[in-house]
Amino acid sequence: MLMNKAETVLVNSPPRRWLQRFYEVRVLLRFGGRLLPGARALEIGCGSGYGSQLVLERFGATSVDAVDLDPVMIERARRRLARFGDRVRLVQGSASDLRAAVGAEDGGYDAVFDFAIVHHIPHWRAAVAEVARVLAPGGRFYFEEVTAHALARPTYQRLFDHPSEDRFTAEQFLDELARHGLVVLGSTTRICGDYLLGVAAKPVPAGSDR
């Protein structure tokens, strides 16, 4: 589900950028995230590309594949990330079918980033399943999400467009990660449970040399 104009302005605003760079990155690193030299990363719902920029600059990933449903956002991201050259691949497509979107193989990524996009996806459980599928053993899923608690607020309902069914609480989101074999290393909620931040890992099979 595409963001409406009001939310597009909000998520691309300077305060939101500051929050991502100077707060959310630190929280994600504290909750089991790690720097990613040599890593292949994926950002789902990349928007204008600022999240992918952080994945390269602050987390140190070697390359990023970034997918978004909105072709306008893909073009904005292309302009923002042009200076990174072939370290970035931008693709229009759905996070609920990453094989079709980016040709993602099982275990193809060392890290997947979700900067508040899964709550926009009507079939969000399919997106979580795809994250688990494409993560390599030992890989990390970095997530920052808006919960059903926030989406039920009158201000959210007046200003923004979101799926009206099967919204998730923080607990339901974490449970869905566990259902797909991801182990939550650390998480936190903010503003009465409105926002969820955390990191989950895909376990390394016993006997593996990873």
Explain what this protein looks like in three dimensions:
The chain starts with a helix and ends in a 9-residue tail after the last strand. It is globular. Strand 4 (109-115), helix 6 (124-134) and strand 5 (135-146) form a beta-alpha-beta unit. It is built from 9 helices and 7 strands. It has 210 residues and is α/β, with parallel strands linked by helices. Strands 3-2-1-4-5-7-6 form a 7-stranded mixed beta sheet, with helices on both faces.
Shape: globular
Overall strand count: 7
β-sheet strand percentage: 15-25%
Q: What's the rounded overall pLDDT mean?
A: 92
Number of helical elements: 9
Report the order of strands and helices: HHEHEHEHEHEHHHEE
User: Which ranges are low-confidence, i.e. pLDDT below 50, for 5 or more consecutive residues?
Assistant: none
- Radius of gyration, taken over Cα atoms and rounded to an integer in Å: 16 Å
Q: Briefly note the structural class of the backbone.
A: alpha/beta
Strand order of the biggest β-sheet: 3-2-1-4-5-7-6
Largest sheet: 7 strands, mixed
The percentage helix is 25-40%
Q: Terminal Cα separation, in Å?
A: 37 Å
